[in-house]
Amino acid sequence: MGTIMYTDGRTEERQPANGRTFSLKELQAIVEGYIEIIPTKDERIMVLNEEGKLLDLPRNEQATALAYLATPADIAHMRMALGDGLIYVGPDLETEGGDYIAGTVLVCTSSEVE
After folding, report:
1. What DSSP element (H or E) covers 39?
2. Is residue 58 part of a domain?
């Protein structure tokens, strides 16, 4: 069973249609687009719309708090370790206040995704 987290703070428990694993079609319907999968802080996974920020979907505060996202300190540490070899694609964490999750997401275990 997964948890859908909406941008307005609501949550909804969701069972896969086949009772075991979410299909790609189900995941795309939940996030309303192409999927991206990232880890969460509690060792589950989060399925989100990979184009959420590009589509200007609303910020999802509860998903952002749960997601394992790079912090400004993480980026600084990587820059020190890799120097010019670091290519970071994402928001400018120093000026934009950190990364975030946009749009509706599904949080579940990795074994629940086909």
Report:
1. strand 35-39
2. yes
- Whether residue 56 is contained in a domain is answered as yes
State both tokens at 42.
Answer: 């509690």
In a domain, 85, yes or no: no
The structure tokens listed for 8 are 């307005």
Name the residue among 67, 9, 78 with its Cα closest to residue 40: 67
The pLDDT tens digits along the chain (114 residues) read 999 999 999 999 999 999 999 999 999 999 999 999 999 999 999 999 999 999 999 999 999 999 977 666 766 776 677 766 655 555 554 445 578 999 999 999 999 998
Kindly state whether residue 12 falls inside one of the protein's structural domains: yes
* Long-range contacts formed by 11-18: CB under 8 A, 24+ apart: 11/62, 14/106, 16/112
Structurally, the chain folds into a number of domains equal to 1
Q: Would you say the C-alpha torsion 81, 47, 42, 68 has a positive or negative sign?
A: positive
User: How many degrees, rounded to 5, is the angle at CA 52 between CA 95 and CA 18?
Assistant: 140
